[in-house]
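Exam review. A common question shows you a sequence with its structure tokens and asks you to describe the fold in words. Practice with the pair below. Do the first one on your own.
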Amino acid sequence: MCLGVPGKIVEINNEEKWAIVEAMGIRNKIYTPLVEEELALGDYLMVHAGYAIGKLEKEEADETLRLLEEISKLS
């Protein structure tokens, strides 16, 4: 099973196509060449296996993170 996790861009390098995203208190460097839209600090990305696979609206990212946190409490 594959899982994408939303993350907020806290640092970005558009020239080299990478960003630091934060999700659930964890920061990771991810690569962004698969996302065609222009990216900026504060944007939300869906991240899978170290790559951004799409841009999200804040509300969608917040809801997904809420659901992931709720699921984590079940185990």
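Now try the second one, then compare your answer with the model answer below.
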Amino acid sequence: MTSSAGASGASGASGSGGASGTQPSITVWIAGDSTVANGGPCPIGWGGQFKALFNGKVAVTNSAVGGRSVRTWLYNVQDTKDSAGECNLAKDAQGNPTVQARWTAMLNGMKSGDYLFIQFGINDGDSACPRHVGATAFKGTYGLLAQAAKDRGAQPVFVTPVSQILCSGSTVSKGTREPYVTATKEAGTQYGVPVIDLNLLSTTLYQSLGFCPIPGGGDVSDTTTGAVGAFFCDDHTHFDTPGAVRIAALIAQAVREQKLGLAAYLN
């Protein structure tokens, strides 16, 4: 089930006027990696399929980028580590970390009533810089992103990293993407931000669709046919369009079940 961690401030723009014509126009901003990015032709991320689930009062700006950790998405990161084992951040003349242009553009456009969805934790486990992010730094960066959104009157939403498809016989293996699933939930509690547990929702979906065992072997390949071959690209992580559509629907359903204000805009 989805988590309601940090429900404080979760209502956001309720649009409680009933018909969409009485609702304020809002933007859903998205930060993430390749499982979220628009992509094409494969992989296709769920962020590119999100707009179709809402009425015309919602604009979606998907700034997810393939291959990024939360820190390489946000900052200009160097290839060396500091004494704590975290990758060094490039800094300006005043000693402040320099940020990517995508974040600056997002902040300049973000307004009261908007939403910011954040999903990382797939590339962050890289042992090498620039992508490596430890769990503590991961949570702290989520907190920084969330506070910037709140400062502009927007509602942040944390999303745990989507599960890979990994089978143990006919059972979908759970617990992939740690320690970042737990770190996302803890960040939600720490910073008062609602959390959608996409990791659990996705494994539950894979199990319900009977994806395990994977036809033809233990991983998805270009020879994998049927529902699994249609859902995923030629690996255990990324989605083709049918998969991205289903994952986006999971996010939307969680928005509805957790009674976020954004739910009023769903079709």
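Model answer, second protein: The helical segments are 70-74, 101-109, 135-151, 180-191, 198-208, 226-231, 241-257. The two ends are 22 Å apart (CA to CA). Full marks require stating both points clearly.
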